[in-house]
Amino acid sequence: MSKTILVVDDSGTFRQVVNMALTKAGYSVIEAVDGRDACTKLATPKLDLIICDINMPHMDGIEFAKRAKASAHKFTPILMITTESRSEIKAEGRAAGVRGWIVKPFQPSQLIEAVSKLCAA
User: Fold this and answer.
1) Does the pLDDT of residue 1 top 70, yes or no?
2) Are strands 4-8 and 49-52 parallel, antiparallel or unpaired?
């Protein structure tokens, strides 16, 4: 049975690239256009991983991570993929429950490696 991953990013191009890489690697993908949209997707009973951007309209990735951790998905790992690399933002992410961090731009192989580690944990 394939693992299900929620991809949250306001860039349709980014979601498409990540969706293609993950689907090719055998994962099922659900997409959300921002944190607010992603909150509605938390009703999905089984999410194995959440991949999220930080800078999005309506609700940023840190706030979404806090809400995801306060939901039925409190044990679902969260991987941030963002242009943000400052240590204080990373610390804020860790405090919100983020388990992994990839800085854009990245290689698809880097994404798949991080996803397989977090889905196996």
Assistant:
1) no
2) parallel
